[in-house]
Amino acid sequence: MGNSSHENASDNPVSVLVELLRQVPALTSEKPEAILGLVSKLDEIHALGLVDNKMFVVRVQPKVSGAVLRFFGDCLRNGKNWGQCKSELLKDFFPLFIRERLIRDLIVLNFHDEGQPLREYVDQVFAASKILEYEAGEEQLVDSLS
Which of 57, 73, 64, 62 minimizes the C-alpha distance to 30? Predict the structure, then answer.
């Protein structure tokens, strides 16, 4: 089955989404850090508004497995949008003590990869705190890094 269309991928939002998702590593662990990293990257892609919520959740499913796959399957079956799925994911996989530990590990213990630009790291921490609904502004997060 050859595709006779010579359509540019940038003309097709689904193709752009597929390409962006291809660059996101699949979830290989159900550890909170791994789930948070994946959801943070997916949230950035979702913010581009390339496809509707249902299509986005459908396209995300190959990136996850186990309990997280079941979770997204339930979201899809129940017609929930990305925001609702993220909110429920937070409740199901990130109880308050886990959220606090993740924020502490990211900010206080300063797990900054060697060679990673500081601005990129700050953006990563800010995105994670947003996903975890940690009530701190960017300035407070930056102050915690020093």
Answer: 64
Please tell me the distance from the alpha carbon of residue 88 to that of residue 80, in angstroms, as a whole number.
Answer: 10
Tokens representing 136 are 């701190």
User: What letter represents residue 105's amino acid?
Assistant: D
Are 99 and 133 in contact by the 8 Å Cβ rule? The answer is yes
* Dist. CA 129–CA 44, nearest whole Å: 13
The answer, as to whether pTM is greater than 0.85, is: no
Q: At what angle do helices 53-60 and 82-93 cross, to 10 degrees?
A: 50
What is the residue-level pLDDT of the chain in tens, covering all 146 positions?
444 444 455 579 999 999 999 999 999 999 988 898 888 889 989 999 999 988 999 999 999 999 999 999 999 999 999 989 988 988 899 888 888 787 777 665 555 556 667 667 667 666 766 666 655 445 544 554 44
3-state secondary structure of 115: coil
Max Cα-Cα span within the chain: 57
State the CB neighbour count (10 A cutoff) for residue 86. Answer: 19
Count Cα neighbours of 73 within 13 Å in the Cβ-side half-sphere: 8
